[in-house]
Design brief:
The chain is built from eight helices and 18 strands. By secondary structure, it is an alpha/beta fold. The chain folds into two domains: about 5-185, 3-Layer(aba) Sandwich (Rossmann fold); about 205-354, Elongation Factor Tu (Ef-tu), domain 3. Strands 4-3-2-5-1-6-7 form a seven-stranded mixed sheet, with helices on both faces. A hairpin with a 4-residue loop joins strand 15 (about 300-310) and strand 16. The longest helix has 17 residues, at about 100-115. It is elongated.
């Protein structure tokens, strides 16, 4: 059943299908609109895909990803669909990951069109306010260039997003009132749902060993430089007073993985010895419970995993993931959050921390 106030817009889009991006604040009914539009298109015989770009409340794919699914039958919820493709963002909030969210949304829309979808419905996050929200949505709309930009609002809170695109000739901007059935979801509810989604995703996980020499690492300084000569490593160990697991010289400076934390005094000594202010020092424990994306040779995300540890001596990553085999994995993308396999979020990873 289509919400009466939304029916004219849904009918218009179904009659001339294309890419429809739906924007709005939290709890305005965006996902419900996407569901109704998807089902209406299917009933009209239109090949339809859904791109779920709501990384915090993912219904298609694991939390921290942008998922794309092909709808082949009417559905009751977006979670009824299995992802056809994923793009790893590595976080459940877009605030510090604007580029990843914009790039991922574009890649998933392109993938849907390449698979023959005539209608691509894009659900988005509720981050629409302030400078960050405006930058995120403006850049996403500008890059994707949807045929329809559908704004759902309670009053006029997202006019600042819609008005700038009103004169783009290739884009139809439509304003809709928020659904009366859209209810505010407490933060606790959203957190619990993310925990449940993590738990479901990792429930049937397997342990995998991935050779460091077989993959590229993204979003970390690890693997971005060249090994340091052994005599310098000995100097670093003497300065830190603990065993060093790994050292690299990067274009940025020196990257050190040690058994124990590096104090500020030790860091200052190293900066003086190596004449650089760019020393990143982490411990082996830094790499525990890190959300990671497992991607193929074309940087297409195959699945999501949890990095448990790195064996620097034998050069292996130990990862748990529902993936059956890691043989096609060529890129491991480090996320910005630590999570247990039971779904408990342990904290965020600061940009540049790893």
């Amino acid at each position: 059943m289509i919400t009466p106030d939304w029916e004219p817009t849904i009918s218009e889009i179904v009659a001339a299908p294309g890419v429809a991006m739906v924007v709005g604040a939290v709890d305005t009914g965006k996902t419900r609109f996407c569901l109704e539009l998807c089902n209406a298109a299917l009933e009209a015989g239109v090949a339809t895909a859904i791109v779920d770009a709501d990384v915090g409340q993912s219904e298609i794919g694991a939390p921290g990803t942008i998922g794309m699914a092909i709808a082949d039958r009417p559905i009751e919820a977006l979670s009824d669909l299995k992802p056809k493709r994923l793009h790893f963002v590595g976080a459940t909030t877009p605030a510090d990951h604007l580029l990843e969210c914009v790039v991922g949304t574009k890649r998933m829309v392109d993938a849907a069109l390449a698979l023959g979808a005539k209608m691509v419905v894009v659900d988005t996050t509720g981050l629409v306010g302030g400078h960050i929200g405006r930058r995120l949505k403006t850049c996403k709309i500008d890059l994707v260039r949807p045929d329809y930009l559908v704004g759902i609002q309670k009053k006029r809170e997202i006019d600042h997003l819609l008005i700038p695109f009103s004169r783009v000739s290739s884009m139809k901007v439509r304003r809709l009132a928020s659904s009366e059935e859209a209810r505010r979801k407490p933060v606790e509810f959203r957190t619990a749902r993310r925990l449940s989604n993590y738990y479901k995703h990792f429930a049937d996980s397997h342990g995998h060993l991935i050779r460091l020499d077989d993959v590229s690492l993204w979003n970390t300084w690890l693997g971005a430089g060249r090994p340091m000569k052994w005599q310098y490593i000995k100097l670093i160990e003497d300065t830190l007073g603990c065993p060093v697991l790994h050292v690299e010289v990067t274009g940025h400076g020196i990257y050190i993985v040690s058994e124990s934390p590096c104090s500020m005094r030790n860091r200052k000594e190293l900066e003086e010895q190596f004449k650089t202010a760019n020393i990143i020092a982490v411990t082996g424990a830094t790499f525990q419970n890190v959300l990671v994306g497992l991607a193929d040779e074309n940087a297409n995300t195959i699945n999501v995993g949890l990095l448990q540890a790195i064996d620097f001596k034998h050069r292996y990553l130990f990862v748990i993931s529902p993936i059956k085999t890691v043989s096609p994995v060529r890129i491991v993308q480090f996320g910005s959050i630590r999570v247990t396999k039971e779904g408990q979020e342990l904290g965020l990873i600061r940009p540049g921390e790893m």
